[in-house]
Write a structure and sequence with these properties.
Number of strands: 9
Mean pLDDT: 88
CATH topology of the largest domain: Rossmann fold
CATH class of the largest domain: Alpha Beta
Radius of gyration: 20 Å
Number of helices: 6
CATH superfamily of the largest domain: NAD(P)-binding Rossmann-like Domain
Helix content: 25-40%
CATH architecture of the largest domain: 3-Layer(aba) Sandwich
Strand content: 5-15%
Order of helices and strands: EHEEHEHEHEHHEEE
């Protein structure tokens, strides 16, 4: 692969999709059995499942002696996340959560300047996080299923990157968060797996409104 790491196996909940991905990227092992990821041929496991399943697979991977990279959040429960961190700390493995924004060049430079003390003590950190991820029209995926998303919304899905960046550059810890949430398109049309605003969609779609798709 481009980063110099060999992708040895891919596991998904759908065996057919795992096979398609494996054939496209020449991955030797694939399937829908999670034990594939914990075989002796695997050194590192990257957990990319929907959030409710993160903790389960991280725990299994650590106990199997695998290094782990987990997509955020590590867990939907703070106590469970702490127990996973403690388990990793007692194991001879490296574990991390994917807050990749902190490794951007500009963020690294900001941290360097702030940590140097040239600015003095940080008193206020102000910023924003903008991206077009899931701007309509967009596919209707697991993020809009409350069972699979686990209640993950804009603050936890996207805002957590900003929170992590603020902590990283300042060396301070965010203790509490207050958020005001709103949906620009509370009423949407779902057709062929794609969402569109209800006021400008084509006909023959299925309405998805009242906050069910936000």
């Amino acid at each position: 692969m481009a980063c110099g790491v060999q992708l040895a196996a891919v596991v998904t909940s759908n065996g057919e999709s795992a096979e398609r991905f494996a054939r496209k990227w020449n991955v030797p092992l694939y399937g829908d059995d999670p034990s594939i990821a914990f075989s002796d041929k695997i050194d590192v496991v990257h957990v990319c499942t929907p959030p409710p399943f993160h903790a389960e697979y991280v725990r299994e991977a650590v106990r199997a002696g695998k290094h782990v990279l987990c997509e955020k959040p590590l867990s939907l429960d703070a106590e469970e996340a702490a127990s996973l961190a403690a388990l990793a700390g007692k194991s001879n493995v490296r574990c991390g959560v994917c807050y990749n924004v902190r490794y951007h060049t500009a963020v690294q430079k900001a941290r360097e300047i702030i940590q140097s003390g040239v600015f003095g003590r940080p008193l206020l950190i102000h910023g924003n996080y903008l991206q077009e991820f899931h701007a309509l029209p967009a596919p209707y995926d697991w993020r809009y299923d409350p069972v699979l998303s686990g209640g993950v919304r804009a603050v936890t899905e996207i805002g957590s990157h900003w929170i992590d960046t603020a902590q990283y550059v300042s060396g301070k810890k965010v203790c509490s968060v207050s958020a005001a949430l709103a949906g620009f398109y509370p009423d949407r049309i779902l057709k062929d797996g794609m969402m569109e605003p209800a006021d400008c969609s084509v006909n023959n779609g299925t309405a998805a409104g009242n906050g069910s798709v936000d």
